[in-house]
Known about the structure:
three-stranded antiparallel β-sheet, two-stranded antiparallel sheet, globular
Amino acid sequence: MQGFFHGTGHGLGLEIHETPRISKNSIGTLKPGNVVTVEPGLYYPEVGAVRLEDVALVTRNGARNLTHFEKVLEI
């Protein structure tokens, strides 16, 4: 997709970027207890960029967003 050229997120722990990686090329599996970033971004040279960042806990039934910050679009 134009403007979107990187992974969507990664594991969060003691290091800045940890496994599991979240991207179309990922080979690992998300497991209950994993804490991951979810940070999609769009980047367009000479126009600008936007990136949203959340932290999620992987559970047996899906995921729980741990970020409780209102997102407001301002142009």
